[in-house]
Amino acid sequence: GVLLRSPNTTAVFALAAAAQDPTVAVSSTSRHDANLQVLTDALAMSHCQFLLHGLSGVTETSIFFNLELHRGAINLEDDDDDGHPSVADFERQLQQLR
Fold first, then answer.
1. pLDDT in tens, 62-83
2. Residue 22: how many CB atoms within 10 A of its CB?
3. How far apart are CA 55 and CA 98, in angstroms?
4. Using H for helix, E for strand and C for coil, what is the string for 13-82?
5. Are 33 and 69 spatial neighbours (Cβ–Cβ below 8 Å)?
6. pLDDT single digits (tens) 10-51
7. CA 63 to chain centre
């Protein structure tokens, strides 16, 4: 099945703010619904083998759900060498899947 994050192009974290803006047409979404959507995203991402991502609490949560992702995740915004694979390592891992 197809997993939809949001009923429109508004990011989940912006739904509450957008609902307060009368110029933005969004369906009314409770904080509970937005939280549920974010947790659904994190759980869906946790089923991936590899993640190419930026700084994101949702991504970090998905890694906590699946600790194997720690070795298969590249944070493009993290300059520290903290045990994560480099972009070159990531590329080699993906080539091994061929």
1. 999 999 988 888 888 877 656 6
2. 6
3. 28
4. HHHHHHHHCCCCCCCCCCHHHHHHHHHHHHHHHCCCCCEEECCCHHHHHHHHHCHHHHHHEEECCCCCCC
5. no
6. 555 555 555 566 665 555 557 778 888 899 999 999 999 888
7. 10
